[in-house]
Each structure stands twice: as structure tokens, then as C-alpha cells.
Write a structure and sequence with these properties.
By secondary structure, the chain is mainly beta. The protein has one domain (about 1-129). It has helices spanning about 105-115, 125-129; strands at about 1-5, 15-20, 30-45, 50-65, 70-85, 95-100, 105. The radius of gyration is 17 Å and the shape is elongated. Bound molecules: zinc ion (ZN).
Length: about 130
């Protein structure tokens, strides 16, 4: 999803977004199938301190336990926070996502941030307990 944020490039403000994400289950650790497509709702804000993307990512699907091999359903809401910049010199800093041409690839940013937060091990409720 490409979000047009030209409106807030030169002035302060906020642009809300809501999007389904067409992530392939096999690309996400531990996921067998989605119960529904991953969904994100949030906003991109231009404040005096810079650009910020905030979103709640809802992930609902069938997961496979790494320990006992059980399939289980799980639904979670993951908060996402990403700093953005329109200054090329900041791109050496991996903490920033570059805004280019006034558009932002929201799904790509959410994907990267989710991967960073994603646990490397998936455990079913029984194994977690
Ligand atoms: Zn288990």
C-alpha cells in the first residue's frame, strides 16, 4: 500500500490509514494460515521533531508450535512505531525509513517492523504455560 503523504511533507499534520496486508503466511515465522488477512490501522504524523508512523497491527491465524508441533489459533494486536525521514543523509541510520516522492510503502514498513518484533520461537498456549 502506497500512502500519499505529500500533504504533510511541508506542513505539520497527520494522515490516517487502514490497510489489509497481503503477506504470504509462509513468509511469517510460525504461521500456517491466516484466519483473516493481517490488518493495520494507524497514522503518519509530521511533528516538529520529525515524521512518525504509529499503527496497530492485527494478526490472526493458525500457528505451529515449535516445541510440540501442535497447531493453534491465535489473534494478537501488535503496536508498531517507526521513525521516518525525507532527508537522504539520514538513510545511513537504519532506524529511519525514507520517504521518497511523497509516498510511503506502509506495508513494507509494517512488515519490517513486525519481523523485528516477531518472536523467533513460536509456542502454543500449553508450551508457554
Ligand atoms: Zn506446544
Amino acid at each position: 500500500m502506497a500512502l500519499d503523504i505529500r500533504k504533510i511533507l511541508d506542513s505539520l499534520g497527520s494522515i490516517p490509514f487502514e490497510t489489509n496486508l497481503d503477506w504470504v503466511p509462509s513468509d511469517v515465522i510460525g504461521v500456517i494460515a491466516w484466519s483473516r488477512a493481517p490488518f493495520a490501522k494507524g497514522s503518519v504524523t509530521h511533528k516538529a521533531s520529525g515524521f512518525l508512523l504509529l499503527a496497530a497491527l492485527t494478526v490472526s491465524g493458525k500457528f505451529l508450535c515449535d516445541r510440540c508441533g501442535a497447531e493453534f489459533s491465535q489473534c494478537g494486536e501488535i503496536p508498531i512505531r517507526a521513525a521516518l525521514t525525507d532527508e537522504l543523509e539520514d538513510t545511513d541510520n537504519p532506524d529511519y525509513y525514507l520517504i521518497s516522492g511523497g509516498e510511503l510503502d506502509v506495508s513494507e514498513i509494517l512488515r519490517s517492523e513486525y519481523v523485528l518484533q516477531e518472536p523467533t520461537i513460536t509456542l502454543c498456549p500449553t508450551c508457554v504455560a
